[in-house]
Amino acid sequence: MFVKTNGWTSVSNAPLDLIAANLRRERERTGMSLSDLARKAGIAKSTLSQLESGSGNPSVETLWALGVALGVPFSSLVEPAVPRVQVIRRGEGPVIHSERAHYAATLLAACRPGTKHDIYWLALEPGGARESEPHVPGSIEHMIVASGRCLAGLADDPVELGPGDYMVYPGDLPHICKALEPGTTAMMVMEHTA
């Protein structure tokens, strides 16, 4: 979060260790050394070293300069990384209530612009797992369990889900779905670029 006080803009509620980890991740992704990045951003190498160790106190201007030098948005340096797999358990997530009816809507996922969606109803019974090969690059799968229990998600790290649980995971990696109880049902939305 960024706050403006007395005409000065500063970083607030952005943990220094998060900023440090994001800086290191982005610098290593580009293959730049500390010296290269400091020079490109127009800051002292010692300042960058302090920021990457979590002991510096970055200004907005310094982070903007680093973002530009790394070729990433400012937000990627101050926001937590989005996990590859996200699970929202029943009763979690942002809920919006109606004033005129007994109605509550929970946002589970806002889909990306320029994508297509295929919607499937799954009926699963215990036995072998449905092992899926990676789909087209950029595919994402959303699953909401309606009844029963299942093990689903990435093949190397599946998650147990129950009624009302929501999960999103990359569909372009090997993934599985296995019923753990008879009569398991779920809704699956496959999202892919248009």
Model description:
The protein has 194 residues and is of the alpha+beta class. The chain contains five helices and 13 strands. The protein has helices at residues 16-30, 34-41, 45-53, 60-70, 75-78, and strands at 2-5, 8-11, 86-88, 95-97, 104-106, 115-124, 130-132, 140-147, 150-154, 159-161, 166-170, 175-179, 184-193. Strands 3-11-8-13-6 form a five-stranded antiparallel β-sheet, with no helix packed on it. A four-stranded antiparallel β-sheet has the order 7-12-9-10, with no helix packed on it. A two-stranded antiparallel sheet has the order 1-2. A hairpin with a 6-residue loop joins strand 4 and strand 5. Helix 2 packs across helix 3 and helix 2 (34-41) packs across helix 4. The chain starts with a strand and ends with a strand. 20% of the residues are buried.
